[in-house]
Fold:
Amino acid sequence: MTRLLYYGRGGRILDTLLEEGCTQVDAVENADAVVVETYDNQSPDPIKRLSGTITLLREALDKIENSSTSQMIVITDHSSTNGNKREGIPTGAAIDGIHGFGTLTAEVLSRRASNLGISTKVFRIGSDRTNEAVSEIKSCLNGPYESHEYRVVTLGA
Structure:
């Protein structure tokens, strides 16, 4: 049974993980994994709008920096790649507004966890792929993982 320290607003992904046997804890010392689920709070203030992305991840990183946590999962959407791409460039960052800037920054900041020796996976999830994402996230939480590993998984691009 995986013990999660969760950052986010809750909802379907967290609820499903808890229903399927994970336990939510309130301190990093009690966690097997840290899960950060970013979200768009739709605030008209750009700084406040980033609280659902960059602020959440910074809080999580501050907690895990001196802990023995071995795994971090970051859950986000496609807003870091859904914006307009430069002409002739088929892949890469394509920020879709301030929320896209926040999710891209969260993806970049999550590499810090990997540099600390924490297995880190970022899940970019399309809204129609939540069930598949929960299955993938559970597999990551239960499966073998390598320290310093960093991987981005895109579902529903």
Observations:
- The beta strands are 3-7, 23-25, 33-37, 71-76, 119-125, 150-155.
